[in-house]
Write a structure and sequence with these properties.
Largest sheet: 3 strands, antiparallel
Number of strands: 7
Distance between the termini: 60 Å
Shape: elongated
Radius of gyration: 31 Å
């Protein structure tokens, strides 16, 4: 790219940025026109669709319950999508299921079935259990994929390690140490 082409490209980008800023300023002033105050200084909302205004005051607060303030369809879709995501991630995803290897608590969707290629490896570490039914957290799954037993595994005494760490932290907290 020659120096002249680079200069032309820079001028075009600067012009586009200036136009974008001007449009933003126009949109801001248009939004400011929608929210104004009445002659008494009370905030007023304007319904853009039919140019009606609503005074908001203590006296009219009870009337607002009867007013249906509608959102745009795009915002309705956005909120609906957020609600659905929340329901999927939290409400339809119970918490309190434990990893079969480390016994730590997880959401249901965070636990995955043991991979077929890892069953024989797990059988050596948990000989008295049906490892085909194991549900693993991502940490344990990654370790087992590498043919390593996780540090916090029940077969390694992982619960004992956690308890010792918690007791140590509690003891430090009670003694005032950090």
């Amino acid at each position: 790219m020659s120096g002249a082409e680079r200069a032309r490209w820079f001028r075009e980008r600067r012009k586009a940025a200036v136009e974008k800023n001007a449009n933003s300023a126009r949109n801001f002033s248009a939004a400011a026109d929608l929210a104004s105050t009445s002659t008494t200084g009370i905030p007023v909302l304007m319904d853009v669709t039919n140019e009606q205004t609503i005074d908001i005051s203590i006296e009219s607060a009870t009337e607002l319950r009867d007013v249906n303030i509608s959102r745009s369809e795009a915002m309705e879709n956005h909120w609906r999508s957020a609600d659905n995501r929340f329901k999927t991630v939290f409400e339809a995803n119970p918490f309190g299921l434990s990893c079969s290897v480390c016994d730590r608590l997880w959401f249901e969707r965070d636990l995955k079935k043991v991979k077929h290629r890892n069953i024989s490896f797990l059988q050596t570490k948990f000989p008295d259990e049906n490892v085909t039914e194991f549900r693993l957290c991502s940490t344990c799954s990654k370790s087992i994929d590498g043919n390593k037993i996780p540090t916090l595994s029940r077969s390694n005494g992982g619960q004992r390690i956690l308890m010792e760490k918690h007791q140590h932290l509690i003891g430090r907290h009670r003694s005032g140490g950090h």
